Amino acid sequence: MRITPILGETGASVTEQVRPVGPRSCGAFPRGIGSAGASPYRASLRIGGIMLAIVLALGAGAASAAPAPAGDPVGGQSLAQRLRSAMPEEASEIRGTLIIGPGKHARQVPVVCRVILHDGTWETDYDTFATTNAGAERLVIRHSTNGPDEYLYAKAAAPDAALPPPAPLAPADADIPLAGSDFSLADLGLEFLHWPDQREFPDETRLDRACYVLESRNPQGSGITRVRSYFDKESGGLLIAEAFDAGGQAAKKFSLHGSSFKKVNGHYRLEKMEISNRKTRSQTELKFDISP
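RESULT FIELD:
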């Protein structure tokens, strides 16, 4: 699921106007992984759902391959574990629209994302509605603080067909698109946080926020094999991720910048984001319903 190489370097600054959201919590705020005593932001981004991991195993900017630096594997494993175990603060629901394809040829698919909290675990549910040419879909991702994600997925056979009960899906088989978009099921679960090789790099600033830098590697992967991600140090929210294939080429690109935010009732809220697949030259915009 990735992002422009440096988010926030183009577009308006959103420092202290945006509260990053949890990557595996459909936009609900995670219980922070940062140091104790961090002061709360003076304004917060309220989207309630579908920052979809949003910020997913997305793509990157550099067109040429470059050797991956070593990084710290001990620190990387520790950071990945903290990120995997960061539960959202509250249950939530948000509605939006997947706009798939460019201009007048774009398809629109309504989507609802829900966060449901359980005792020590939580799940994120994504429901896409049937369109003229495609049936409804349902994705359930069950998270825990000390185990792998569980995926359950269902797809109706036709626009007017009933949606069957979601069936278990192995993480290795979750690299399929949701509703024909550029978001894969594995993107939405941030499956790269479960890869065996995790490496931490020195902190950097992205979107005017101090960030942890984590690089996840999966040499045995068949598509994306390396993801470099940037997590806000105070909240644990994912701000940027860059995904590469085995040849070191950028795989996907997720765009988020100043124009993605809109002021509603005195608060800046995320209104839209874009993801493009550099290999298929396709793109998807996710637009949220942020009306008061």
